[in-house]
Write a structure and sequence with these properties.
Chain lengths: 115, 332
């Protein structure tokens, strides 16, 4: 029996990428990057960060997929490796979703996690 | 956790006059950076969105399970934050803050080994400190930089050891001169045992005795360091649930013992079941006093429990701890 390995990268679904494009267009921007990261805090210890910024920072890991450039700082990458960024428009809540295989526990509102 | 034998003249100095004790084993950090307060606000229990220059406060680092990583005393001064940790917990706090620092502008410098830390307590302490330092109007929880015996020091008025007192922090090379000046001003140099007895009598919980990774800050009654309105911080969801549904399992109480019992001794309730355990013990002129974490439903003022084994056990009478009464928010 073989076990599928989680890819050690960060991906963005086509649906999420379409919504990022829409947000960029709404802000009148056409060459931005999507900063994806983690910061300390939130009920479970680590909180996801998502931001549309003009430029990546020095040392950021850059990933281009589905027409969007993701910028991730090195330390956040450790906690996000294997994560797929998706977008949900369902009745249970609308917004970006981090499908993070490293997250062992999440708080009730789903914005923070622990590993 | 140790049974302490108080040096009575030292204890009397703390009660009736002024005593000074070395608190050098406490960690001393100096934290700077534009994001320092915001990060601490996200990682600890008290509301720290703003801390005006010269203002101090207490806050608790809790982990995601709501357990205590450490109790911190913070004061905004010198363009940053002075942070006192529990004895021997400086590195733990440094490592914790580093773990949760991603892109924030924050610098944490461990000053424990190049600074000294003296604590002044007792009713005459305000007179002693003002006779050697220009801090006549220092309010409780306020800190200021001043000079003692020509040495530049931080003077910080707070509930050190659970009662009104002054923490004095300065460069290590100035320790002897500052201590001598305080003694010349009427402070009696007191033993660590006497200070420990002072802490127990004041009901001040301590790391690894009344709180730690084995429990949450609500059990230790550190409510004065917990904001119920600030929103999310690490461990907040657990603590909010415990409070909302009255699920706090144990409660810190002061205890009178009629026989000597070591910290760690189990308490037995009237129903013969486990009712908690003794966490600190001190000999005092009025008898054997201590602190205990007691099963919440039995933790009432005046209640009595028995120490284990019941066949040879002593009687333990519970009281409300003074520090909790002084710092817990008043409920309507």
């Amino acid at each position: 029996m073989t076990t599928a390995q989680q890819p050690l990268t960060i991906s963005i679904s086509q649906n999420a990428a379409d919504h990022v494009d829409a947000f960029m267009a709404a802000e009148g921007k056409d060459s931005c990057v999507l900063r994806v990261g983690v910061k300390g805090g939130g009920c479970s210890g680590l909180t996801y960060v998502l931001d549309i910024v003009d430029d990546a920072r020095e040392g950021d890991k850059l990933i281009e997929q589905n027409g969007v450039t993701l910028a991730i700082d090195k330390k956040s990458y450790i906690f996000l490796a294997g994560t797929q960024l998706d977008y949900s428009g369902g009745l249970n809540g609308k917004g970006f979703i981090f499908n993070n295989p490293n997250a062992k526990k999440a708080c009730g509102c789903g914005t923070s996690f622990s590993v | 956790m140790s049974v302490t034998t108080s040096d009575q003249p030292d204890l009397l100095a703390l009660r009736n006059a002024c005593g000074v004790v070395g608190s050098d084993t406490a960690g001393r950090l100096f934290i700077t950076g534009d994001d320092a307060l915001d990060l601490l606000n996200r990682l600890t229990t008290n509301k720290l969105e703003q801390l005006p220059d010269g203002q101090g406060t207490t806050t608790v680092i809790t982990n995601a399970d709501g357990r205590v990583v450490d109790l911190l005393a913070l004061a905004a001064l010198d363009g940053g934050l002075w942070c006192l940790t529990s004895p021997d917990y400086a590195q733990t706090v440094v490592d914790w803050l580093d773990l949760y620092t991603f892109v924030e502008d924050i610098s944490v410098v461990d000053r424990t080994n190049d600074t000294f830390h003296l604590t002044l307590g007792g009713p005459v302490a305000p007179h002693a400190i003002t006779s050697v330092a220009d801090i006549s109007d220092l309010a409780l929880d306020a800190a200021a930089r001043s000079f003692i015996a020509g040495a530049s020091v931080v003077v910080w008025r707070r509930l050190a050891g659970g009662a009104d007192g002054y923490d004095i922090v300065g460069d290590l090379a100035d320790r002897d001169a500052v201590l001598a000046a305080l003694v010349a001003a009427g402070a009696q140099a007191i033993s660590q045992d006497a200070w420990e007895t002072h802490r127990v009598l004041n009901g001040m919980p301590a790391m690894d005795a009344e709180f730690g990774l084995f429990n949450n800050p609500l059990e230790a009654r550190l409510l004065g360091a917990i904001s119920e309105t600030k929103g999310c911080y690490t461990g907040q969801e657990v603590l909010a649930r415990l409070q909302t549904y009255n699920k706090i399992q144990r409660r810190l109480m002061a205890v009178d013992l009629d026989v000597l019992a070591a910290p760690g001794t189990k308490l037995i309730g009237p129903d013969g079941k486990n009712a908690g355990q003794i966490t600190s013990v001190a000999h005092t002129p009025e008898g054997i006093k201590g602190l205990a974490l007691v099963t919440t439903r039995l933790a009432t003022d005046g209640a009595t429990l028995t120490t284990e084994p019941v066949s040879a056990g002593g009687t333990v009478t519970l009281h409300e701890p003074a520090y909790a009464l002084a710092t817990e928010p008043v409920k309507d």
